[in-house]
Design goal:
By secondary structure, the chain is of the alpha/beta class. The protein has helices at about 25-30, 40-45, 85-100, 110-120, 150-160, 160-170; strands at about 15-20, 65-70, 105-110, 125, 135-140. A 5-stranded mixed sheet has the order 2-1-3-5-4, with helices on both faces. InterPro entries: MUG/TDG, Uracil-DNA_glycosylase-like, Uracil-DNA_glycosylase-like_sf.
Length: about 180
């Protein structure tokens, strides 16, 4: 299986960071390509994108100010197949990418992704009070995987903090 391309450029509004590519993403070359993954639906319904994009349009997100990458580049069937060594190497590589590209927001698509990156055990949804990165806000969102048991409306509500911040520069009030 092959890794998939990052879609990154300097000064993006948001870089979305997943665990690693799925088998389906590896086969197609597109991020969040598994039909059970709700990433593209979540972006649209949270107000981040003007329409629901398809995985094969992932490069068009750059035009909207959004980028795509993963903490680990090796595709797997499930995130639990990722080794601690891969996370260590991925954390170092991701830190370099984020420092180089300096997005306004690094959105970690899954608490586990952020926990691996930040090495913090306890994190909350949304913007993080204490950032690891110097010039980038860190945002933790639920995984978009269809395996996540959280209600889709609750996931969308968390993601909807991002367009509010991008429009106003202010954070939503936490409940």
């Amino acid at each position: 299986m092959n890794p998939i391309l990052d879609y990154l450029k300097p000064n993006l509004d948001v870089i979305f960071i997943g665990f690693n590519p799925s088998v389906k993403s590896s086969e197609t070359g597109y991020h969040y390509a598994n039909p059970n993954n709700r990433f593209w639906k979540i972006l649209f319904e949270s107000g981040l994108t003007p329409r629901r994009f398809l995985p094969e349009e992932n490069e068009k997100l750059l035009e909207l100010g959004f980028g795509l990458t993963n903490i680990v580049s090796r595709p797997t069937k499930a995130a639990d197949e990722i080794t601690m060594e891969e996370y260590r190497e991925g954390r170092e590589e991701l830190f370099k990418k984020l420092k180089h590209y300096q997005p306004k927001v690094a959105c970690f698509v899954g608490k586990g992704v952020y926990q691996q990156f930040s090495e913090k055990k306890s994190v909350s949804w949304g913007f993080q009070d204490l950032s690891v990165l110097e010039h980038t806000k860190e945002f933790v969102a639920p995984s978009s995987s269809g395996l996540v048991r959280m209600k889709i409306d609750d996931i969308i509500e968390i993601y909807s903090e991002l367009p509010l911040y991008l429009k106003t520069g202010r954070f939503a009030h936490k409940k």
